[in-house]
Amino acid sequence: MPEQRFVPADFVVPPSLAADGFRLEPLGPQHNDADHAAWTSSIEHIQATPGFHERGWPPPAGLSLAENLRDLKRHASDFEKRSGFTYTVLDDAGEVIGCVYIYPSRADERVADVRSWVRADHGDMDGPLHKTVAAWLASDWPFTKVRYRSGA
């Protein structure tokens, strides 16, 4: 029986997404300081965003920069292995304002489980981010089922 893949072997994973007021690029170790600052400034806001509280992320006590770096390296490895895709959300000035996670559902690997967060001081971006990413998933990705939870 062939191995179940999250995306087909011949699928070209989008390297980015540009939208009005923000852009997405693959999250990696180069974002560590800015990513850490973004989410640690907004723990309560992120935990109130659907899809995060039940996963226990972010941890109320935070993570060290070294722990965050390990997490970013894991996300980058998942991206490279095509087992999950995490994008950082950057504003027009290139500042990290959030993240988008695209992973197989824990309950059904045929379903893309998508979550996103934005910094509390960019809470007004939840709706536009959700709308833009949902349309992108429908038009540019091979998923037949998507469950996208956000603060929108």
Automatic annotation (TrEMBL):
Gene3D superfamilies: 3.40.630.30. InterPro entries: Acyl_CoA_acyltransferase (IPR016181). This is Twin-arginine translocation pathway signal protein. It comes from Streptomyces angustmyceticus.
